[in-house]
């Protein structure tokens, strides 16, 4: 039976390593792709106009890319470190100093992150090269410009991702290690209700910044130029990240509003509300990628639809710009989607013992799955609502600036498709993970799994 | 000895020739891919309602497997299990859950209270899941908490309670459904001596005052002595029985079992010391 437990623990740990690896790998690929445009811009014989275009593309799109990647990587690693709180408490009680246990966690993170970054190199190179070709095909950069991959790609792409990963795991591990053992166990079971003031202020600042982008787009930008689209796009991203930071507060508000509705689902609905209420931080983890995925894809796709409807006869350059937009939004949407599945699976799997406790108290397997559905629905409603708000904040002003109408008719279809996709991903991941935890015999799952 | 039966009072639990083999064809979990391991080898017993029974045995003797099969947490490979006169249902896990929910209460070494629910909500949980009406169940929950002297903890969460308090809440939850049998698996294993004694007294009182049938698995002779009867298990069979037990006698019989098992080479070495230590601890406690 001891071997069964060890196997389960290794399998569980493997899951959290895979999650951390994926976050770092995909994040590094995206950041390297954009940062390599800076290397290209610095090449010999690149004209002034080309240099400007490349620098703007790299810093504007890459700039919010850094924010998205850093927050996603940080969240994933913070979740992984938090889930080891019990193990850290055990190490502490066996005589490890706080410093030693932090070094253990950060050391493991460094290994996983380094592997992710190194494997990302060829893909980052390919991504950057593709971006340059798209820029050249759409006529924004001259064909003669040669692709370069160097210091900027490595510093921003590799260095930035590594730094975000290490900082996140260091911060979480240090907080966990400093607690006394008893407190650590309590914290691990409570999952945190407190939202830091820094997080709240940063969230508010970003939402305000995003909203001001929207105002600028609607009032002072020339709708016939491409740069209004990038300002508007930035608005969606900034507002989205702001809402992602505010997620614990937003989940709380949505839970309060939706509690009576979920109560109609019977006891699993009621239990789901109680579970989320005690652990807004944990619930907020999954809200972050839902907001980002919704804001980025709906915002960018709608703006492209606005442009297309204003210009029925797309020029070759317009077509190139459209493809570029699709590629950029595709990269970030895929990244956010992978993060979503990652985080939902990690959080659900970590609740194995809790599900077994519910089963022992008389919950049928179906009731446990219904509770997971209710909790995921709360996160989905929060994420989709505020992700949509962020997208609207960018798409409506842009549409007003370009066409004078609030939104093109195709926006509804785009939004519906994004909502359906995100909902299927989140519910699918949560239910599959919950169902998988049910395969462990209840009595095994109930044993206090220190390693989990 | 194969069968222990008492006449008279209603029957709370009956096992007939229960066999559990891990690692046999069709058994996914358990001892792994090696040869099959017989954890229970034809166990038969019948317990009258309102009795308190301890199950003891060397490690690997099948104590936990016996509890899991009797409590419907696991299905025996063969044989019959009747709780409160009704046989464990066939069919899926949902059916088995509903059966446990209405007939069986659990107390485990690690309390297993749901962390985000208050004490009251935890005690009410089985009824809530069964969809029973809230107001009446709520009054019953408070009544049980009062009976156990922990009504003032009703609005706290498990993390705010001591181990002893959490275990008393777990007992309250198990009693609240008025189960045919309350199963306790090493209920004092994680507690200090004095909290452990309180929990054992509570189980004793449940049998005496409320007529609750209690089955407790333990390795501690002092704990086992709180029961009316101690059943001894070795190599998956019931091998001995002791009525109105005293801890020293329980320890002596356990030592005999341990040396028998060690002589057969089936259990880890070093049986004498812990039992002697436990017996010594008991003597100090009595003195």
From TrEMBL, chain A:
InterPro entries: ABC3_permease_C, Macrolide_Exporter_MacB. It is found in: Cell membrane. Coiled coil: none annotated. It is a multi-pass membrane protein. GO terms for molecular function: transmembrane transporter activity. Residues 65-178, 327-435 form the ABC3 transporter permease C-terminal domain. The chain crosses the membrane at residues 17-36, 56-81, 102-127, 147-170, 200-221, 241-265, 286-307, 323-345, 376-400, 412-434. It holds the Pfam family FtsX. GO terms for cellular component: plasma membrane. The keyword Transmembrane helix applies. Keywords: Cell membrane, Membrane, Transmembrane, Transmembrane helix. The keyword Magnesium does not apply. Belongs to the ABC-4 integral membrane protein family. This is Putative ABC transport system permease protein.
Automatic annotation (TrEMBL), chain B:
It comes from the Bacteria. Pfam families: ABC_tran. One of its GO terms (cellular component) is plasma membrane. InterPro entries: AAA+_ATPase, ABC_transporter-like_ATP-bd, ABC_transporter-like_CS, ABC_transpr_LolD-like, MacB-like_ATP-bd, P-loop_NTPase. The keyword rRNA-binding does not apply. GO terms for molecular function: ATP binding; ATP hydrolysis activity; transmembrane transporter activity. Signal peptide: none annotated. Keywords: ATP-binding, Nucleotide-binding, Transport. SMART domains: AAA. Residues 13-260 form the ABC transporter domain. The keyword ATP-binding applies. This is Putative ABC transport system ATP-binding protein. The lineage of its organism: Bacteria, Bacillati, Actinomycetota, Actinomycetes, Kitasatosporales.
């Amino acid at each position: 039976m001891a071997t069964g437990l060890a196997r389960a623990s290794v399998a569980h740990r493997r899951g959290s390593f895979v999650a951390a690896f994926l976050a770092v790998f995909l994040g590094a690929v995206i950041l390297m792709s954009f940062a390599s445009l800076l290397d290209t811009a610095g090449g010999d014989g690149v004209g002034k106009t080309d240099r400007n275009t490349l620098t703007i593309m790299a810093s504007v799109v890459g700039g919010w890319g850094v924010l998205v990647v850093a927050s996603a990587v940080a969240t994933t690693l913070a979740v992984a470190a938090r889930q080891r709180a019990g193990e850290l408490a055990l190490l502490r009680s066996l005589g490890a100093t706080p410093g030693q246990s932090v070094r253990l966690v950060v050391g493991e993170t460094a290994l996983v992150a380094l592997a992710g970054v190194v494997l990302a190199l060829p893909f980052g190179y390919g991504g950057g090269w593709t971006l340059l070709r798209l820029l050249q095909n759409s006529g924004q950069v001259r064909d003669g410009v040669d692709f370069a991959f160097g210091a900027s790609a490595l510093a921003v792409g590799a260095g930035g991702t590594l730094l975000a990963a290490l900082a996140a795991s260091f911060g979480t591990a240090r907080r966990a290690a400093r607690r006394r053992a008893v407190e650590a166990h309590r914290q691990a079971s409570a999952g945190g209700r407190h939202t830091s003031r820094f997080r709240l202020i940063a969230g508010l600042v970003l939402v305000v910044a995003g909203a001001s982008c929207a105002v600028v787009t609607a009032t002072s930008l020339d709708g016939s130029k491409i740069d209004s689209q990038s300002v508007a796009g930035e608005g969606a991203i900034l507002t989205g990240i702001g809402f992602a930071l505010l997620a614990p507060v937003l989940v709380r508000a949505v839970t309060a509003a939706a509690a009576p509705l979920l109560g109609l689902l019977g006891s699993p609905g009621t239990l789901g509300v109680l579970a989320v209420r005690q652990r807004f931080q944990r619930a907020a983890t999954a809200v972050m990628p839902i907001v980002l995925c919704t804001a980025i894809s709906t915002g960018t796709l709608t703006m492209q639809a606005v442009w297309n409807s204003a210009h029925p006869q797309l020029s070759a350059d317009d077509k190139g710009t459209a493809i570029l937009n699709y590629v950029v939004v595709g990269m970030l949407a895929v990244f956010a989607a992978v993060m979503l599945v990652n985080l939902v699976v990690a959080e659900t799997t970590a609740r194995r013992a809790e599900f077994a406790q519910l089963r022992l108290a008389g919950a049928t397997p179906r009731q446990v799955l219904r509770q997971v559905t209710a909790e995921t629905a709360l996160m989905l409603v929060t994420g989709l609502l505020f992700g949509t708000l962020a997208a609207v904040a960018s798409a409506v002003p842009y549409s007003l600036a370009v066409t004078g109408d609030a939104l093109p008719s195709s926006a509804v279809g785009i939004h519906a498709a994004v909502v359906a996709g995100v909902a299927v991903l989140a519910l699918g991941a949560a239910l599959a993970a919950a169902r998988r935890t049910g395969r462990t015999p209840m009595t095994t799952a109930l044993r206090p799994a220190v390693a989990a | 000895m194969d069968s222990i039966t008492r006449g008279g009072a209603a029957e709370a639990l009956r096992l007939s020739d229960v066999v559990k083999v891990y690692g046999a064809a069709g058994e996914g979990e358990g001892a792994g891919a090696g040869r099959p391991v017989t954890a229970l080898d034809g166990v038969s017993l019948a317990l009258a309602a309102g009795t308190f029974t301890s199950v003891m045995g060397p490690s690997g003797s099948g104590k936990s497997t016996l509890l899991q099969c009797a409590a419907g947490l696991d299905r025996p490979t063969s044989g019959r299990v009747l709780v409160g006169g009704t046989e464990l249902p066939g069919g899926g896990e949902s059916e088995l859950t509903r059966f446990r929910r209405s007939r069986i209460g659990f107390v485990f070494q690690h309390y297993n209270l749901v962390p985000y629910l208050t004490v009251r909500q935890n005690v009410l949980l089985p009824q809530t899941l069964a969809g029973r009406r809230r107001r009446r169940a709520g009054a019953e929950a408070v009544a049980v908490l009062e009976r156990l002297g922990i009504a003032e903890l009703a609005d706290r969460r498990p993390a705010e309670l001591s181990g002893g308090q959490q275990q008393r809440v777990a007992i309250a939850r198990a009693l609240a459904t008025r189960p045919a049998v309350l199963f306790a698996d090493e209920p004092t294993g994680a507690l200090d001596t004095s909290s452990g004694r309180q929990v054992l007294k509570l189980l004793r009182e449940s049998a005496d005052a409320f007529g609750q049938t209690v089955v407790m698995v333990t390795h501690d002779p002092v704990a086992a002595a709180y029961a009316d009867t101690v059943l001894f298990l070795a190599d998956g069979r019931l091998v001995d029985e002791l009525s109105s037990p005293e801890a020293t006698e329980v320890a002596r019989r356990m030592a005999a079992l341990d040396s028998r098992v060690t002589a057969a080479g089936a259990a880890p070495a070093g049986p004498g010391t812990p039992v002697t230590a436990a017996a010594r601890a008991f003597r100090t406690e009595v003195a």
